[in-house]
Amino acid sequence: MNTFRTWINNRWAIPVISGLLIITALVILQVSPANTVGNGVMVSAAVVAGARIVVNAVRALGAKIVGIDLLVSVAAIGAVIIGEYWEAAAVTFLFAIGHALETATLNKTRSALAALVAVAPELAIVLRHGEQQEIPAVAVLMGETVLIKNGGKVPVDGEVTGGTGALDEASITGESMPVEKVIGDRVFAGTVSQGGFLQVRATGVGADTTLARIIHRVEDAQDAKAKTQVFMDRFSAWYTPAIMVLALGLGLLTSDVVLALTLLVIGCPGALVISIPVSIVAGIGRAAKDGILIKGGEFLETSAKITAVAVDKTGTLTMGRPQVSDVVVLHPAMSREQLLTLAARAEAGSEHPLARAIIDAAAREGRSITGLPESTEPVPGKGIAVTTTEHRILLGNLALLAQFKIADTAAATRVADELAQAGSTPMIIAVDDIVAGVIGVADEVRPDATQMVVNLHAAGVKKVIMLTGDAPLVANAVGVLTGVDEVRASLLPEDKLDAVAALQAQGYVVAMVGDGVNDAPALATADIGVAMGAAGSAVAVETADIALMGDDLLKLPEAISLARRTVNNMRQNIAIALITVSLLLLGVLLGGVSMAIGMLVHEASVLIVIVNAMRLLRPSRSNAASGKTALKATPTSDPNRRTSQLLAPTTRP
What we know:
Layout: H1 2-8, H2 13-31, H3 36-62, H4 68-81, H5 85-109, H6 111-119, E1 123-128, E2 131-136, E3 145-148, E4 157-168, H7 170-173, E5 179-181, E6 186-187, E7 192-204, H8 210-223, H9 227-254, H10 257-266, H11 270-289, E8 292-294, H12 297-303, E9 308-312, H13 313-317, E10 323-329, H14 336-347, H15 353-364, E11 375-379, E12 383-387, E13 392-396, H16 398-403, H17 410-422, E14 425-431, E15 434-444, H18 449-458, E16 463-467, H19 472-482, E17 486-488, H20 493-505, E18 510-514, H21 520-525, E19 528-532, H22 538-543, E20 546-548, H23 555-590, H24 595-614, E21 646-647
Parallel strand pairs: 9-16, 9-18, 16-17, 18-19, 19-20
Antiparallel strand pairs: 1-2, 1-3, 3-7, 4-5, 4-6, 4-7, 8-20, 10-15, 11-12, 12-13, 13-14, 14-15, 15-21
InterPro entries: ATPase_P-typ_cyto_dom_N, ATPase_P-typ_P_site, ATPase_P-typ_TM_dom_sf, ATPase_P-typ_transduc_dom_A_sf, ATPase_P-type_domA, Cation_Transport_ATPase_IB, HAD-like_sf, HAD_sf
Pfam family, one: Hydrolase
Organism: Arthrobacter cryoconiti
């Protein structure tokens, strides 16, 4: 009994039963053309295939929707009333087959979401009371230690607290190569161990994991409507009743009921209605497989129109990990170690990102920095003034020295200019009103930054502009290296917003790529806000218009290219649907197209539209190999200096 129920609920059950009844009726009618039994079997075939159609039509009418099911229902019932039993059975049978095929192929277009759900782990091995216990993944508690063995799925988001291993993170970031994990690294639910043994402290469980948020986001995105789809829905709401009125008018005018009923079937806008959503589902699904989350159809459609991309420098074009690149001693009585130690002591009370780089550099060289200065006075846009028990230390730019009336800055000016031209942020240090030296802090340009710019232009983007708060010399050095079209430096967050608004005023559709904090105003103003490395940020996954899950710049041009392909696919589908309906209507009016043939062609057009959309599920062509753009270190005659391949991340506030 259970087997029968399972079979009868299968999408193919109704078409099979209806088809067998039609074959039986045709055999009976072949023997006896006027046989009542044969006609009864044919009507039974129409009822089996058409019952669900009529029910759906009534439900739609209850919701004040005049849809395709109503057109087919009226046509089939009318055909039975006038004795055209074969036409009624053929129309409903073909519609049932078309519905089953549509369901099957639409499920295929949602395969990316199904794949994400499939990687969700069901079980977890946790350490409880010193023992390993296998429990459902949803039962893991925050803070518990989860064990990840070779070949196992990671059941939680967490932090590695012990062991080493390699994880396949393709389900999250789209990255095909396994990623090595060591103590302190983050891991994500749904990733798979490719070797090693990891102990992970759970920081996200159940619905609070990155994978769960991605699945939720993709579900919402695939159901969200593009502007074109909203228009087509409105068009269909008027088109379907118009076809019914036209069929009624034609029937009254010609007294040809069959012609009127045929027009109802031919006029079904099925392919037109499905042309856009099926492309959106496939496009967003393909993007999700590649580690690109697009918020919905509207944002996908806008992304296809992007003509300008604004990028932040620090953490986007550069690695976002500033390091000391140069230590230049200018005072004859001071050593390199002393200069670096004094700078680190001064920065001990600072919250600026560059402070961490200087303190870390001192620590690497064995210079212990303990305690805080007696006073730390930030000087906005210039640097800091620090008082210790022994010295007054100034650390910043030339404007800071001028404010405190420090003399003899010619040598410091020359060195600072050289460092800035080489791509480092120079910080001049003065001890007790005497210029002691210059320290350069820099950030490495991402190796794929140049290739990203090339790929963006290839994807149809006209302008790539860098917006940064850094000094012009440093920003220009990065700009030359990466090949961006324009550099705007020394910008405050509100200046970046103004820059994006200015691009929009010039007619550009702008995408802004940033870290979501300092760049928040510009990201909100841009037509499309893009977050990079979003796998580690729940906020970015939920709010960014496009979230690049991995830390891969080349995903940006890939996202824009996919958006353009998807919109082109939508246009192709609309053209297929309109041409098919137009030709069929012409065929009906000129004669030669029957109700059954019309339904057959109509269902074929629906399938063609779906299959065309499924082409988007194929992986896009690989991007060109990333350009390795980092500058080479160049030895110099001065042992205290090195020209670095690092480039500056930011200036002081």
